[in-house]
Specification:
170 residues, disordered N terminus, 6 helices, Endonuclease, Chain A, 4-stranded mixed sheet, 4 strands, alpha+beta
Amino acid sequence: MDRHHPPAPSSKEEGEQTFKAPSSLEEGVGGGGVTRQLLLRRAAAMRRNLPEPERKLWMELRSRRFAGYKFRRQAVIGHRIVDFFCPTKGLVVELDGDTHDAGRDRLRDARLLRATGCRTLRFTNEEVMRNCDGVLITLAEALAQQGDRWAGGRHHPPTPSSEEEGEQAA
């Protein structure tokens, strides 16, 4: 058979790079080579491509729908990208698929708690898909038990007064 055109090269042959969501191990923990800017770009890409369990939970948490608490999705905390984060309470919510290593996750969660004071609550993807109401009840209980990070439950830490900054009154 006589072809008029050579076969089209594959994406790999053309050198095209495809985006692969980073695994927890690639997020710079212990590697020291991943910059905050790279993590922010990865988090933005991950927000555009949420897996179904994360999308389902996000629909319950977004826009202060869940008990008035503000949540962020794919938030960068230190050298990690966490699935969901409630800044007022310092509570991280992670959804785990079949490939998560529970022992390694416990160590990472303990490191995050020591470094930032943020507690991690974990659910499986299956729990979210089969029993989202149960997940939300557990999350509500965890939020109620977790103290506010700042006085008055504000989203941001309080701004220091002029006296605290050392400014002299005129």
